[in-house]
Amino acid sequence: MLQVPAPRTGVLRCRGRDLVYGQRTLVMGIVNVTPDSFSGDGLATRVDAAIAQAKRMVDEGADLVDVGGESTRPTARPVGESEEIERVIPVVSALQAALTVPISVDTRKPGVARAALAAGAHLINDVAGLQRDPEMAAVCASYAAPVIVMHSPGESWEVAWPVRFGDVVGEVGRYLERSIEIAVRAGVAEDQIVVDPGFGFGKSNADNLILLRRLGELRGLGRPVLLGTSRKQTIGKILGGLPAAERLEGSLATLALAVAQGVDIVRVHDVRPSWRVVQMADAVVRGSAEEDR
User: Fold this and answer.
1) Verdict on whether the full-model pTM lies above 0.85
2) What is the CATH number of the domain that holds 72?
3) Which of 21, 63, 102, 177 is the S-S candidate for 17 at Cβ 3.0 to 4.6 Å?
């Protein structure tokens, strides 16, 4: 029999646009306003295209959208704070007026986070887990914004990826515990923190598969768990070297596995098929579909 983790529900208070998690798996749509996204979906600074994409994602089932202005693929060049602000803020301002769902901003820079929250963003998604810049946690706390803390072993231009791990799940868990502590010390409410194991960030294919296999252990951190596997390189490698544009089926398989282990939010490029997969998986795992009458 499938062993399903006990449901744990809560509310992320996203500055007036609350998100209830635990009743079903939430879907986060990715809006990349970069010219060099690994997945080939970067919109650069085309605000109209970003609005159209975000609206389509919400129509297809996205519960929130995540706007990013700096590529985090291993070979990407770092982007300066002012350049990232120029990419992100016009899009956030436009989406804040155009959408009713929360807008997350994917950044590791406190200046970008501050500008995004001032422009109407509702939460921050820090791929450095608040551990790159000590100001990040304070910025989130000052705006009473929820924060997603992700595990990353260091920037790809500073440390060699993949990093060697002993017990990857244990090391990821300890890193995320530190991120939670940093956030709480800065004044972020503990119940407004989401954890992300950082699938693909500095990890080997084997490490990524171990994380997928043992995702349920991260629920021991007591916080909602977000997973971002969409179109990642490990999926392409396992499927015979497929490029990012052909990794949909593999990405969807990881979502079903994640739902079965109690993941609360999935971050995806392809919203409609992803929403359908988590709806079906939720019906099995959480019994969220209405019974036949």
Assistant:
1) yes
2) 3.20.20.20
3) 102
